[in-house]
Amino acid sequence: MMNKYALLIKQIVLLVCTSLAFVNSTSAQVNIQALDVLKGLQVGDDAPLFHLENQDEEVVYLEDKLKEGPVVLVFYRGQWCPICNRHLGRFQDSLSLINNLDASVIAISPEQPEYLYAMKEKVDLEFDLLYDQGYFVASEYGLLFDPGESLRSRYDKLLNANFEEAHQDERGLLPIPATFIIGQNGKIVWRQFDPNYKNRSSVINIMEALKAIN
Fold first, then answer.
1. d(Cα 163, Cα 144) in Å, to the nearest integer?
2. Could you tell me which of 13, 84, 163, 167 has the fewest CB atoms within 10 Å of its CB?
3. Whether the predicted model's global pTM rises above the 0.90 cut
4. Beta-carbon neighbour count of residue 43 at 10 Å?
5. Count of domains for the chain
6. Which tens digits make up the pLDDT trace of 118-177?
7. What CA–CA distance (Å, rounded) separates 132 from 69?
8. Is the dihedral of CA 19, 184, 175, 157 positive or negative?
9. Which whole-number Å values give the CA distances from 206 to 68, 141, 178, 197, in the listed order?
10. How many CB atoms lie within 10 A of CB 57?
11. CA 145 to CA 162: how far, in whole Å?
12. Which domain holds residue 23?
């Protein structure tokens, strides 16, 4: 009998957490800046905590991940982006080496779980992909910008980005595809930030940074 009650309580807690994640993401005031003035969070800054749904619609807490070790936090534009596919593929190729340094990888995009799952299957990823509903995490990390209607239309037509459906948001905003390493103390210890979406973090540099903090 107690097991049945415990299971019921666990289900209720999960439902409440999921609801809170939805409320937090949809009610947050996002800070949208021009691409050329975005600076992103700096090394030494506190990393904003969050809890978001992953590709399996399970809630993932950054705080819990940090209890296990440093976190490599990767922002990407979406499953439609060929460079994002290749970039996340490199993390998958080196995932065991990163895990051997007691670190984990989390990737975040504005796309809902259905699209996250498609990305996971396409690149055969074994780490969590998270849905930044309402763009509030990208905003808190200083990465959020409006690509403009012309670029949105081009991505929709040429790459089938399908922003409104994928984001469940008509604004069609994007993050700069930056990477942060967050130490167990919650501080950003390394970052790669470049408004040019073609320039991405190097797994080699990330490995060196992780070794330096171990």
1. 15
2. 13
3. no
4. 12
5. 1
6. 999 999 999 999 999 999 999 999 999 999 999 999 999 999 999 999 999 999 999 999
7. 22
8. negative
9. 18, 19, 12, 18
10. 13
11. 17
12. 2-213
